[in-house]
Inverse folding.
């Protein structure tokens, strides 16, 4: 596996969403992160000590995590230059970008010369199956969203931890590069070949017989013109018993697409339930998670209360308020008998 | 490109749908096909002369097309053995299977020894873009289906030829291995990495300014639990002005999934229109194509007439009856101004 402690890369980023992988590790694996690397024009911080590559090595870091995202996931010249400097200082490199470290000959040569390793987290396992849609034992929750990057991973991780804290068997199932780096395992769904999307999720979340839950990290949105195919296959492969709808009320338009507005919550929830029913007719919504980071505490509380009233579902900001109301609701409406065989 | 004439492989197949690539070439590129290869236990024929590999070479064949399909697209031991014999006789090999010829060392070695070439039709172009959902100039028709293998490619090819026969600029845009072998170009959509599904179609069918039509070959079905992600991304990338719904009234269950029934035509058409509206709010249905191969001519005519009445749309079996009624309908409801900029 990827050697820790980690040194987290921010580079030249000034887009909070663009550094979500580095941020995710800083939040959920903080004890394994020694510092952050940023250039002078980077206006963001994870609240970790800013270090050079040499200082990171001296502080015990073993791997530089290129925890930044951009549309298409390309490895730009800036990134290559910084990665070469990190290798030179003695750090392994991990990346979740679509474009692979191993496809850049300069990085391959430098890693080889220094006896270091390049980790491409977005390499799916070979031999994923085609999905078959057969019902399998166990309970599954999937987070879905009005858009990309609206809090699906945070919500899923916090739900898993909250269930575990109550003594309920629960596993976070990662489907994106940040989740995989946090969990140490998972399926990089957006890098899977299209015919195997639902099969990859069936493989990620197999039958379970311990009365516990799989908490599956959602991806994209049925309403995102770039990525809705991924979201559709994920819904079908997950066969969720429960959906949690995630939304950022401050988002002005679909991520990366100024010409597309976000869908309404009602429209979005209905579309997700309709799509999910193909492989699990008993799917139901169990909560709404809002990212209220830009609101005052009072406004956030009011918005969640209003949304809860409107939908008849628990609504929280998981980071600010925790997820207990959603857990309570999930537990009261759990299927009484384990869903095992037959389907439509 | 792939050297013709072709020699078409049927192998041990006894499943008509499993030989659809060989059959498609025999129908749409018949002048380029010298014969068919089948073992004694193969109960199917394309109506071409049955030959050995040596006889095919003597008849002028240059390439053996492994035109068979199976779930997962694996290259079994039977297939490898036959391909080795074909190489030994002097034939190049073309394959549309997921598992690549170039990943089988015995085939690579044999091809190299004989100076022959292995063609993997399912290799997508590198550097496909992420879809952006921006409206582009030109008119587009997409075929959609209640299931896989219900006649989408045939319908699309026949629509393209019928438009061309009327002097309308029209291009068939292939999205599957058979269509690509027929057209000589296209995107093997089910082999594209999931994040790039809609972008691949935007790339395949760029803006056109000649008042002509792109006829885009559909894939899968929104109601197929294995492949609906592909169908969703295809709908979004195509931004279709017009949909033609394809259906096989004889299909007992979803292809490969005995535990899933086919959707109703109304439900299926509504779901496709709803999904397509995300990137083209003006999309409309322009026809229904039924595969009536198992019906008597009278029963086929009656079913098409009843379906046309029920939906208020032209309904034909394209192979038996031609597609003229659909072309007439398409032409009467074409957008008057070229759809170019803005969106929702």
């Amino acid at each position: 596996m990827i050697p820790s402690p980690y040194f987290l890369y921010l580079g030249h980023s000034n887009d909070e969403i663009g550094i979500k992988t580095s941020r995710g590790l800083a939040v959920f694996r903080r004890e394994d992160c020694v510092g952050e690397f940023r250039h002078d024009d980077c206006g963001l911080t994870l609240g970790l000590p800013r270090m050079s590559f040499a200082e990171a090595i001296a502080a015990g870091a073993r791997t530089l995590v290129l925890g930044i995202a951009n549309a298409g996931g390309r490895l730009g010249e800036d990134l290559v230059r910084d990665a070469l400097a990190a290798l030179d200082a003695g750090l392994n490199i991990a990346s979740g970008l679509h474009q692979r470290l191993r496809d850049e000959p300069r990085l391959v040569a430098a890693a080889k010369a220094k006896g270091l390793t390049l980790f491409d987290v977005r390499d799916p396992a070979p031999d994923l199956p085609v999905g078959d849609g057969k019902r399998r034992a166990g309970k599954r929750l999937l987070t879905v969203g009005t858009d990309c990057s609206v809090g699906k991973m945070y919500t899923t991780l916090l739900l898993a931890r909250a269930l575990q804290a109550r003594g309920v068997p629960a596993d976070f199932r990662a489907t994106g590069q940040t989740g995989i780096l946090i969990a140490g395992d998972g399926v990089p769904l957006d890098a899977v070949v299209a015919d195997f999307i639902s099969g990859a999720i069936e493989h990620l979340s197999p039958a379970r017989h311990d009365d516990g839950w799989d908490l599956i990290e959602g991806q994209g949105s049925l309403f995102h013109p770039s990525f809705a195919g991924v979201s559709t296959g994920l819904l079908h492969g997950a066969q969720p018993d429960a959906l949690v709808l995630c939304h950022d009320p401050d988002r002005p338009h679909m991520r990366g697409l100024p010409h597309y507005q976000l869908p309404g919550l009602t429209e979005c929830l209905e579309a997700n339930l309709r799509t999910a029913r193909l492989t699990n007719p008993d799917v139901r919504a169990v909560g709404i998670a809002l990212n209220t980071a830009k609101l005052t505490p009072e406004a956030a509380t009011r918005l969640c209360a209003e949304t809860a009233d409107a939908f008849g579902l628990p609504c929280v900001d998981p980071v600010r308020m925790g997820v207990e109301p959603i857990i309570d609701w999930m537990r009261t409406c759990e299927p009484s008998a384990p869903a095992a065989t037959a389907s439509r």
Remarks:
- The CA atoms of residues 201 and 238 of chain A lie 6 Å apart.
